[in-house]
Write a structure and sequence with these properties.
This protein is an alpha/beta fold. The chain folds into 2 domains: about 270 residues, 3-Layer(aba) Sandwich (Rossmann fold), CATH 3.40.50.1100; about 120 residues, Rossmann fold, CATH 3.40.50. The chain is about 45% helix and about 15% strand. The protein has a 7-stranded mixed sheet with strand order 1-10-9-8-11-3-2, with helices on both faces. Strands 6-5-4-7 form a 4-stranded parallel sheet, sandwiched between helices. Strand 8, helix 12 and strand 9 form a beta-alpha-beta unit. Helix 10 packs across helix 12 and helix 15 packs across helix 16. The structure holds pyridoxal-5'-phosphate. Pyridoxal-5'-phosphate (PLP) binds next to helix 7, helix 12 and helix 16.
Length: about 425
């Protein structure tokens, strides 16, 4: 190791001793069963794999590394569809006054249902994956969909959304500007907003979305139990507005209370609104401005989701912000595994947590964080590969052409 300043920033939190009521309220144990019962009816549903990387774990002196691989979720290359589809299911239940009655998937997509509901236009802003999930779900229901993206969104991501019949509009500004614009236009046009981020008087749908993500958590726990593991000791989860992180971490706190795994939120350094909020430490979410420039398109959000923040502020153990090359390195590690480890296709937002772990364990000047997290030969570390190569051209530029290289001064020696 050399004497360079660390290139990652972080803040650690002492977990409040009080009971985590909000996590229990939002993610009661039966919630993951309800959402999974819905998702498993969707044709093509199967559990996404929980992959083990034993050789990399050995190299890093970690007990086990586990990757929930959402690159193979339905046909959508990302976990996001779990939230959007569950929210549309809840929306229809509520619209028809059937809140406590199950609607079977085959009834949901029937002509009769279409007649009952009339024509609906579902609308959302997205940085790619959420919009694709909503477009997919709306198409299954035979309904309309309008998706707003910001000006930096790649053509590949836009085309992927359009391929499910949605109308896509490019909005000036960043992701947060796209959210503001869709709210204005939806009011004008009578569209139904299905947003994964929340605001003052808009919390019901984002809560459904987070609850939909718990299908993945129920699968993970089932897969761990098949390995004789009760729970991971550490969870690294990536965040944009924080809805995924709140679902993952809230689920574990609801299930295990004070015995929940150590939970670490990872963000891009140019869009680290949760780290920023944790640093201000007044209990409120705080935004950051700017064009949120990062290769991690799914995490390029400057405003935390307030309902996600409410959960995160009482459960997260550490927030870490990393430069883009950390994500690119994570992608390359997944794509060129050690002999005997599985190959994982992971996009920029998907791979950042693995890249961050390597930085945390190996970078110079990170000792305080390393000591706090105490990741060692006994630890079982969970990552979620939240996306595959959702932007295939950028994926190849990073893996084949070596774009976003690690600056030489930050090269780490794994031994
Ligand atoms: C691939 C990927 N990973 C992680 C996230 C983060 O989710 P959230 O915005 O809920 O924090 C997103 C969000 O779009 C995403 O697309």
């Amino acid at each position: 190791m050399n004497n360079l300043k660390p290139d990652i920033t972080w803040i650690v939190k002492n977990r409040p001793k009080k009971d985590v009521n909000l996590s229990k309220k939002m993610f009661p144990v039966e919630m993951s069963r309800i959402s999974r019962r819905f998702h498993r009816q969707i044709p093509g549903y199967s559990m996404s794999p929980l992959r083990s990387l034993p050789h990399l774990a050995q190299m890093l002196d970690v007990g086990g590394l586990w990757v929930k691989d959402e690159a193979v979720r339905l046909e959508l290359n990302s976990f996001k569809v779990l939230g959007g589809s569950f929210a549309l299911y809840r929306f229809i239940q509520e619209k028809l006054g059937l809140k406590d009655e199950e609607i079977l998937y085959e009834n949901l997509i029937s002509e009769e249902m279409k007649r009952k509901l009339g024509v609906i236009t579902f609308a959302s802003a997205t940085d790619g994956n959420h919009g694709r999930g909503i477009a997919w779900a709306a198409q299954r229901l035979g309904q309309k969909c309008v998706i707003y993206v910001h000006k930096e969104t790649s053509k590949r991501r836009i085309d992927a959304i359009k391929s499910y019949g949605a109308i896509v509009k490019v909005v000036e500004g960043n992701y947060d500007d796209a959210v503001r614009q869709i709210v204005i236009d939806s009011k004008k046009n009578g569209w139904e907003i299905i947003s994964d981020t929340s605001w003052d008087d808009y919390t019901t749908v984002p809560a459904w979305i987070m609850q939909g993500y718990t299908t993945m958590m129920a699968e993970i726990q089932e897969q761990f139990s098949g390995q004789g593991i009760i729970k991971p000791t550490h969870v690294l989860v990536q965040a944009g507005v924080g809805a995924l992180a709140a679902a993952v971490i809230g689920y574990y706190h609801s299930l295990f209370g004070e015995e929940a795994p150590k939970c670490i939120v990872i963000e891009p350094e140019n869009a680290a609104c949760l780290l920023h909020s944790a640093k201000i430490n007044d209990g409120k979410p705080h935004s950051i401005d700017g064009d949120l420039d990062t290769i991690m398109a799914g995490l390029a959000c400057g405003e935390p989701s307030p309902i996600a923040w409410e959960i995160l502020k009482e459960t997260v153990d550490a927030y870490v912000a990393v430069p883009d090359y950390v994500a690119a390195k994570g992608m390359r590690i997944y794509a060129t595994p050690l002999a005997g480890d599985p190959f994982v296709i992971s996009g920029e937002s998907g791979a950042v947590t693995l890249g961050a772990l390597v930085a945390i364990l190996k970078e110079n000047g990170v000792d305080a964080l390393r000591d706090f997290l105490a990741i060692n030969e006994e630890s079982q570390v969970l990552f979620i590969n939240t996306e595959g190569n959702t932007d295939p051209i950028q994926f190849r530029q990073i893996i084949w052409e070596g774009s976003n290289p690690v600056p030489k001064e930050y090269w780490t020696d794994p031994d």
